[in-house]
Amino acid sequence: MKNISRSFEDYLKSYRRSIEQPEAFWEELGAEFRWRKKWDRVLDWDFMKPEVKWFVGGKLNITENCLDRHLETRGDQNAIIWEPNDPGEEPAYITYRELHSKVCQFANTLKEQGIKKGDRVCIYMPMVPELTVSVLACARIGAIHSVVFAGFSSRSLMERINDASCKMIITADGGYRGDKITGLKDIVDEALVDCPSIEKCIVLKRTGQQIEFVEGRDLWWDEAIEGKIDICEPEIMDSEDMLFILYTSGSTGKPKGMVHTCGGYMVYTAYTFLNAFQYKEGDIYWCTADVGWITGHSYIIYGPLAAGATSMMFEGVPSWPGMDRFWEVVDKHRVNIFYTAPTAIRALEKCDPALVERHDLSSLRVLGTVGEPINEEAWHWYHDMIGKGRCPIVDTYWQTETGGFMISPIAGITPTKPAFATLPMPGIVPAVMNEDGKEEIGNGVEGRLCIKFPWPSMARTIYGDHQRFHDTYFSGFPNKYFTGDGCRRDEEGYYRITGRVDDVIIVAGHNLGTAEIENAIDEHENVCETAVVGYPHDIKGNAVHAFVNCFHPPKDEDDLRQEILTLVSRIVGPIAKPERIQFVSGLPKTRSGKIMRRILRKIAEGNTGDLGDTSTLLNPEIVDEILGGNAL
Ligand code: WTA
Fold first, then answer.
1. 293 touches ligand 1 (CB under 6 Å)
2. Does 319 lie in the same domain as 174?
3. How far is CA 602 from each of CA 407, 545, 598, rounded to the nearest angstrom?
4. Based on the domain organization, do 202 and 264 belong to the same domain?
5. pLDDT band at residue 563 using 50, 70 and 90 as cut-offs
6. 459 by DSSP, 3-state: which?
7. 3 domain residue, yes or no
8. What number is the average pLDDT over the span 381-406?
9. Which domain does 554 fall in, by range?
């Protein structure tokens, strides 16, 4: 592929060109793919509306690029290597030819079940190859997939299905994760009670557990695909047709369905995958994320497959059957590029070094990280213990909204600095803004991170709510995309992401909206009001501290805590459970009635020396009470 940097000079040259002649730069990359009709214009954009279109008028199908295009040159190469949860079970090796055939066969199944271009299909599955097959089969026929992470509760699933009026859901009887079995179909059944738009539910048999079957609605995967041919003409899509919806937490309770489109997303994910990781023919690449998150969409499925890579999918967890599961898998499959999250690194770093040393990690060449800022200690451990000082750390900063990497080193080429995402990818024009909305010019500055120019894989809207898309990302700093993150640009122009500056907390790499958790806790009959804030946590990066004000003093605080945890688990999902719950008799409020989260955040952080001026509060006395209270 063109514009792949092979030296730091190359990178600087590409970067300069991508800024000075963005259309020529992206046109060259677009031309590497298979289009049914070439675009009329490379880019139309207006950040005030906002409206962004790439490869305008171009026609394509992304699966033709991820599958058909490779059949001649690499039909027998593995597209997917699947490592099951249980090391005793056999891995699956799926070549490009086999994947193509499975995707076509399932695409024909979807069609037979009444799915057409533009229909929304929800996918709620464990990390099995059929998840990738489902995603690509939707894309093959122009259906819009909405993958919901299989750790979400039935309520969260129901809200996401209804927000997009999905017509079908694809799931499994159950899923394995470590020594646990999740009853996925039971959760789906509970959600579907309130999902009038769902007509069909396809169920993959994974665990073989007992499940309910609803006549006329549910059908088994194996029976549904039986007799379907494995040739399916791809639906011809406009470059700007919707490819998928993926929900991310926002600062109000309602999750945002980020919409990604076909053409630009394909070009950008494939290019950044090849460039940042310096993927070479024959490499085995392993991203440990779940396909339920954007990392899995862009860098397990679309980017690597569009680039013709071998991408590994892992069903399990890093801690089972032992804390060396990752290293065992790296050794077993001779993984060359390994991409994971700081929360996993921090958990593994605490273990006995013998767990690492007993495995041969010499195949590793590049190590990646994503999801939250990586602290220096974890960076060094990853670099020294796992990479043996030989493997560059690619700290990729990006978001569900951005579709692909924004700021990241190019492996082995960009000189790295611990805890820095380093420099922008070609085509990305960051701006650091101060609180007055002015851009900080030059280096050695700190502020809020915005992007000034469109890039091909950016989200185009929030499904069904373009106004919210505008208000959330394009209103704070006019004519710029606001990321919601703070950052520092050091003396050398390197970026260090300092974390969210809005009401999103990143816990173990998962974005959680404080409002979403507060709403869940407030549903308890004895809870009057709740404020949720994040505080630093050794392994999870951040953890949730909930300040809960009850109508009546709880009879037994531990019982109420347990009830609240169950409630959050049921409504949002187990990942959102607060680490600490503190009962209070009121929350600090401004005179206009707003909760002063700034103060609560400091208290939760244990940073109580400097609470700022509390005298203007409506109820300053409450601060002392909270300081004297305890959180368990
Ligand atoms: C954070 C994940 C620091 C950031 C791809 C962003 C990071 C949010 C990094 C998006 C990184 C992601 N360094 N912070 N390398 N990568 N973040 O939508 O706060 O799940 O806004 O996308 O994660 O999370 P999301």
1. yes
2. yes
3. 29, 11, 6
4. yes
5. very high
6. coil
7. no
8. 98
9. 504-627
Q: Does ligand 1 have an atom closer than 6 angstroms to the CB of 371?
A: yes
Do 176 and 318 belong together in one domain?
yes
| Same domain flag for 199 and 344 | yes
pLDDT tens for each residue of 311-359:
999 999 999 999 999 999 999 999 999 999 999 999 999 899 999 999 9
Q: Are strands 242-248 and 144-147 parallel, antiparallel or unpaired?
A: parallel
Ligand 1 atom 3: residue of nearest CA: 373
Candidate from 148, 506, 510 with most ligand 1 atoms within 8 A of CB, to mutate: 506
Report the separation in Å between the CA atom of 401 and the middle of ligand 1, taken as the mean of its atom positions. 10
pTM for the whole structure: 0.93
Which residue, judged by its Cα, is nearest atom 7 of ligand 1?
372
Does residue 248's CB lie within 6 angstroms of at least one atom of ligand 1? Answer: yes
Residue of 511, 512, 540, 542 best suited for mutating to test ligand 1, as the one with most atoms within 8 Å of CB: 511
* Domain-ending residue, one of 418, 435, 451: 451
Nearest ligand 1 atom to the CA of 510 is 20
How far is residue 575 from each of residues 79, 292, 415, 502, measured CA to CA in Å? 31, 14, 35, 19
Domain end point (choices 451, 467, 492) = 451
Identify the CATH number of the domain in which residue 593 sits: 3.30.300.30
| Number of domains, the chain | 2
Q: Give the least confident one: 72-81, 305-314, 538-547, 587-596.
A: 587-596
Look over the chain and give the mean of its residue pLDDT values, rounded to a whole number.
Answer: 95
